[in-house]
Amino acid sequence: MLERIDSLRDEASAAIAAARDPAALEELRVRYLGRKSELTAVLRGISELEPDQRGPVGAAANEARRALEAELSARAEELEGAELERWLAAGAIDVTLPGAPPAPAAAQNLLIRTQREIEDVFVGLGYRVMEGPEVELDYYNFTALNHPPGHPARMAQDTFYVDPSTLAPDVTVDGGLPPGPEDVVLRTHTSPMQVRAMENQEPPIMIVVPGRCYRSDPFDATHSPVFHQVEGLAVGERITLADLKGTLDAIARAIFGPQRETRFRPGFFPFTEPSVEVDVSCFRCGGSGRLEDGSRDPLCKGVGWIEILGAGVVDPNVFGFVRENGYDPERVQGFAFGMGIERIAMLKHAIPDLRKFFENDVRVLEQFR
Length: 369
Prior knowledge:
Strand content: 15-25%
Oligomer: single chain
Number of domains: 2
Structural class: alpha+beta
CATH architecture of the largest domain: 2-Layer Sandwich
Number of strands: 9
CATH class of the largest domain: Alpha Beta
């Protein structure tokens, strides 16, 4: 019996040392020290042994049990320590690395996102993105765009005049004369870059000019004295109104969806002739003017079309201001167009009030992360 106890102890010790996880260790405890284990049966059967065998067998069995319990406890601590080391290694933090930057409080303003989207579409069509000064000379803002002094269109674009004494000393009007009190303005559109670009580049030319503009308009749900515009210009020897139609079709489909169509209506702009107002087929009702429930579509007011911009063929008088740069109106022609970024954003994202773009309400910005 003593030999069997020694054999069980050696067998259990070897198994405990080989255990790889707590579950295996618990299984060994039950096998060798549980109520149904062989060692427990030996202890229970001591009373049935010969009197001279009871002492040695009981002492050996109890010693084996105490030794195995100590080995189980020690092995459990080893396995727990190894598991902790693996967990720490897996979740180690390099304290020498810079800390993570704080999450932004809001998102990029929707007007800038819409501007970038429009720019990307035009760049894909081969246009070049340009920028120009917001404080502009009357010559570029009005005169060179076929708005001569006294033209009624100047009143429609009433703007803010700038005291020339507040400008840099090298600012002059065409011809080198210093500007007069009413010759420096906050630009009313980004169209002045048409003339500036043609002064610096011979035809052909294809540009878009996004930027901030100023007019003395009221500040309400649909108007603001500060707004954003994207102006476009394409000039070459064989550019026609058909090219303008194809360009605007591509723009409308890229911004409002692949099923969109455009419609031209007669209009008037001093620097284009002929001029057109451009509509896009309504992207909410599909151009039918009616919603799915049969009610009138409030977005397009039931007509199936939404006005998005103005355009036209560049007036030959505009080319007259840059004729020496290769823009002979007898040889080249082109088209120009301008769209309000606020209007595009309001239509695309169903925003009812233009003032939301300027109030700096973080809740509005967070909707367009």
